Amino acid sequence: MSLPQFITVEGPIGVGKTSLARLINARYGFHLLQEIVEENPFLGRFYDNIDEWSFQTEMFFLCNRYKQLNDLSKQYLQRDQSVVSDYNIFKNTIFARRTLSAGELDKYLSIYDILTADMPQASLIVHLTASVETIMGRIAKRNRSIEQNMDPNYIRNLRDDYEVFLERYSVEHPDVPILVLDGDKLDFVERPEDLDFIFQQIDAILKKEQPTHA
After folding, report:
1. 86 counts as catalytic
2. Mean pLDDT of 29-42
3. Which of 19, 99, 189, 201 could share a disulfide with 54, CB 3.0–4.6 Å?
4. Which of 48, 80, 86, 118 is catalytic?
5. Alpha helices in the chain, H assignment, sequence order
6. What's the CATH number for 6-206?
7. Does this UniProt record's set of keywords contain ATP-binding (predicted)?
8. pLDDT tens for residues 52-98?
9. Which residues are paired to 31 by β-bridges?
10. pTM (two decimals)
């Protein structure tokens, strides 16, 4: 029996992670794991004042994602059931390094290391990226009240942080394939041919073939 797959879809806010994870779920029948976002009681205040509310916001996300992944491992992966998730827990460190002060970051990373020491690792990471203009347009389109004051510079920095992090991750974890998809070129929600292209890339990776670049 083949090992269960654990696909994580990652990228900056508003790039389409949840939409793609749901489409992968529908195509492959993997269990769908979605991150808790709007339930975070600090998030609205965080976007209004990042310095004041960053630690509370990041700790809430970390604890909830830890609980989700711990349950996921026991209920699905350890029972040979494949999973697709619209986040990878490493995103916590990307956001924390951008938002926390040096003193807070040291404390946060210590807790992160303890909680994630035995977490399940992705068998495939799908990295969605796009221009700031595309991302801001998608954020506006989904019209979440907590995101109305989103700063484009914050999105730009976050997008760049993902690029740097995943370049380093690919070197440190050469056994984990990373499929990079350009959201400026691919519209997998509106264009079925783009979605078919993405599925071809995923099929190739799952079959241990080398995908072409989008």
Report:
1. yes
2. 84
3. 99
4. 86
5. 17-28, 43-48, 50-75, 91-99, 102-116, 132-142, 152-172, 192-206
6. 3.40.50.300
7. no
8. 889 999 998 999 999 999 999 999 999 999 999 999 999 999 999 99
9. 83
10. 0.88
